Amino acid sequence: xxxxxxxxxxxxxxxxxxxxxxxxxxxxxxxxxxxxxxxxxxxxxxxxxxxxxxxxxxxxxxxxxxxxxxxxxxxxxxxxxxxxxxxxxxxxxxxxxxxxxxxxxxxxxxxxxxxxxxxxxxxxxxxxxxxxxxxxxxxxxxxxxxxxxxxxxxxxxxxxxxxxxxxxxxxxxxxxxxxxxxxxxxxxxxxxxxxxxxxxxxxxxxxxxxxxxxxxxxxxxxxxxxxxxxxxxxxxxxxxxxxxxxxxxxxxxxxxxxxxxxxxxxxxxxxxxxxxxxxxxxxxxxxxxxxxxxxxxxxxxxxxxxxxxxxxxxxxxxxxxxxxxxxxxxxxxxxxxxxxxxxxxxxxxxxxxxxxxxxxxxxxxxxxxxxxxxxxxxxxxxxxxxxxxxx
Length: 391
Description:
Layout: E1 26-31, H1 39-52, E2 56-60, H2 65-68, E3 78-80, E4 108-111, E5 117-120, H3 123-132, E6 137-142, H4 144-155, E7 160-164, H5 180-201, E8 204-209, H6 216-225, E9 229-231, H7 239-251, E10 257-262, E11 274-276, E12 285-286, H8 289-301, E13 305-309, H9 321-339, E14 345-350, E15 353-358, H10 359-362, H11 374-381
Parallel strand pairs: 1-2, 1-6, 6-7, 7-14, 8-10, 8-13, 9-10
Antiparallel strand pairs: 2-3, 4-5, 11-12, 14-15
Helix pairs in contact: 1-9, 5-6, 7-8
């Protein structure tokens, strides 16, 4: 008789059906918000896992726009996800479904005849579109905005499982989001390269990275690359301690310094630096803090300062092996949750395991960098300044 080790693993042996949850025949996948490395890996894993259960799988174009505005798409806004369609996509960045951060169905921007734009709730219409397409459940892959929309749709009656995606790593209840490791790895590589030119010219180089209102990317890439100061949203900064750090390095013979700034970092008593205010159907766009910090440090230190904004470079490219594996695990776990009769949940990384939590518990919440975490303590013990009195 074959041993247990030699027998193939059958992870999905059944699909639970209850009066509240009739049998699943077709599921939809949706990717919303900013793109992140690993999205295609989730799509592949979820598609294959669902097909192994005998389910049909479709993908919605550009968040929910494929259902809300199908006339704008040559393929009708919804595509069939066959095994062939998802072959060879794990290593690809971006998403084969497309994405948007301007298609919130609960606050959908619509232009009136007089040219003004108003936001309307298209939830009932969207639910009708799901029903018309014979879609029994949704796997929504996104950040805090997309998962909050998923929670709203779930409350309205749609069966939903969420998958946490963001390079910012700012989602509650999961140790990591896929896309974060890829962003940190690339940011670290860029900072490593900037050391060479900063050393050659004896300059201060300020590197602005994404992260929105959380400092995870700045903190991890800055510490990993040996930056001399790191400014994050969780610690409002004063540039005087940073300038003192730069001056002290200069006295010791190190004529250059690297400062990593999160796009959402704020000066003491000041607000966020933005390049576009919040408007109908979209949130404010952060940016510009790097240039402001560089200008002020040049004034305070007398040293030449330059700014490098990594921006959307952090979103692009192939996912790291860590993010590929995490995304694949999340995609399979989302289907597993549906097969087990779960609803209104988000899959998450908990230690070495993939678990799940209630969408209601994480909706509208943001995971910030704890100021007493080991990485912050390590940075301080290494002499890295955070622009505060402890720096």
